[in-house]
Design goal:
Blueprint lengths: L4 E4 L6 E6 L14 E6 L3 E6 L5 E5 L18 E9 L5 E9 L1 H13 L7 H26 L3 H21 L6 H7 L1
């Protein structure tokens, strides 16, 4: 038996998807007590049942961040520690660190979609593209660092990306639309 889990993007701030990619000795797998421990940033560890050979989806209620019957809340970005454990004759486990970036990615996507590059002159348009590329590069670097257990670097890159994105949004890319109206109408 070889245990493996994959964190699969759900492209949703409300859910965390974890797929079982393990190889079991029998099909269906004969395991007892399949559980996953998930450490949510700034909230602690929760131990949950895990369905082998399946795609498991967790949300704020299952992770103990919100109460049953309340609306789901977005899961926080940050480093998540996952530990999948089964106990047949002996105990097996696999661990993963991931940098969740759904909230900052949503903010990045919204900033990108609000940016009307047709309004800007060439210099501003070029600068906006450079700024957005730099922000995306920082987000990707944060994910890569977390995947390689460089937790401090992952957190620093995430914070830098978030600060850069907030500054970009505040500056509104410097586009007023006046240049487009004056030069093209």
């Amino acid at each position: 038996m070889v245990l493996d889990i994959l964190v699969i993007p759900t492209y949703n701030t409300l859910t965390l998807g974890v797929a079982d990619a393990s190889t079991y000795d029998t099909d269906p797998p004969v395991v007892s007590s399949p559980t996953i421990e998930i450490t949510v940033p700034n909230f602690g560890v929760v131990s949950l049942p895990f369905v082998p050979n399946d795609f498991n989806i967790f949300n704020s209620t299952s992770l103990g961040l919100s109460l049953v019957g309340e609306p789901l809340i977005p899961l926080p970005d940050g480093i998540y520690y996952l530990r999948y454990t089964v106990a047949p004759a002996i105990t097996y486990h696999v661990e993963r660190n991931i940098m969740r970036t759904e909230l900052i990615q949503e903010k990045f996507d919204n900033a990108f979609m609000k940016l009307d590059l047709m309004e800007c002159d060439l210099a501003i348009k070029t600068q906006s593209k450079v700024a957005l590329t730099s922000i995306y590069y920082m987000i990707s670097g944060s994910i890569a660092a977390a995947n390689n257990c460089a937790i401090d670097t992952a957190n620093k890159l995430y914070m830098q990306a978030n600060n850069m994105l907030n500054n970009f949004i505040r500056s509104n890319c410097g586009c007023s639309g006046n240049n487009y109206i004056i030069n093209f109408y």
